[in-house]
Amino acid sequence: MKKHAGIVAVCGLAALATGVYIGNTVTAQGNAGGAAVVARTRIAFLNLNEVVKAYPKFKNLQETMKQKDKFYMDKIKVLDDKLKELQKLYQNQATSQAERDNIEPQARHIKADMENITNEAKRELIKFYDDNMAQIFMEVDTVVREYATTNGIDAVIRYSEDWNNEYHKPENVVRRMNLPIWVMYKDNNLDITQTVSKNLNNRFANAAVAPPAGANPIQQTGATAPPAGTPAPAPAPRQ
Question: Rounded distance, CA 201 to CA 218, Å?
Fold first, then answer.
C-alpha cells in the first residue's frame, strides 16, 4: 500500500492544479468473456472568468471596493493638503526659525498618519476582497457540483479567458500559449459556462450582496457571449 502512496499523491496534486472535479468512474464485468468494461467518462468545461464577471455579487463587490478605496483616499488627501500647507509655510522666508522648528514635528506626525492609513487600507481591502471572492467561488463550486451530479458529469475542467473583441489579439494569443493548461479545442456541447452562470444567479439570487448605499441595483445577467469565431457554450454536455 505504501508503495503506491507517492503516485496517488502526485495524481491528486495534478487534478487540483487543473481545477478538475472528478466523479466516480463506473466499471463492470462484461457478460461475454468476463472482460472489464469501462463506462465513457463525461467531461464538461467551465469558463470561470466569464461566470464570475456575469455574477451580480461580483459586480457589487467591485463597486464596494471602489467606494472603500475612495474612503481611504479621501482621508489621505486631507492629510496631504495639510502637509503641503506646512511645507509652503516652512519655505516662506517670513517664517521664523521657531515656527520652522514647530512645523517639522507636525509634518512628521502627518506623514506617519498617512502611512498608517495606507497600511490599514491595504489590510482592509485585501481581506475584504479575498473573503468575498472566496465566498463567490464556493457558490460557483456548489452550483457546478449540483449540475454535474444531476447530469451525470464525471469531470468539470475549469479554464479562464476573456470572451471579447480582443480574444484574437497577438498578445492574448501568446499569453494563452504560455499557460500550463489551456483548452485549445472543445466540442461546443461540452461547455456549460452559460448554464452554470444562469443557475448561479437563480440559486443565490436572494443571497446576493446588496449594492452599496447610493448605487443603482445591479440586474442579474447570464454569461457574456463570446465573439465571433469563439466556441459558444451550450446548455449541457453530450455523451
Answer: 12
Region 19-34: mean pLDDT is 46
Angle at alpha carbon of residue 40, lines to 195 and 20, rounded to 5° = 50
* Three-point CA angle 177, 15, 56, nearest 5°: 75
Please check the confidence at residue 23 and state whether its pLDDT lies above 90: no
- Record the cell numbers describing residue 44, joined without a space: 464538461
Q: Hey, what's the cell of 218?
A: 445591479
Nearest to 186 by CA among 157, 164, 165, 153: 157
Beta-sheet pairing, 43-47 with 155-159: parallel
pLDDT, tens digit, for every residue of 196-213? 999 999 988 665 454 444
SS (H, E, C) 154-214: CEEEEECCCCCCCCCCHHHHHHHHCCCCCCCCCCHHHECHHHHHHHHHHHCHHHCCCCCCC
Instruction: Identify the pLDDT of residue 92.
Output: 92
Burial of 164 (0-12, 13-18, 19+ CB in 10 A): middle
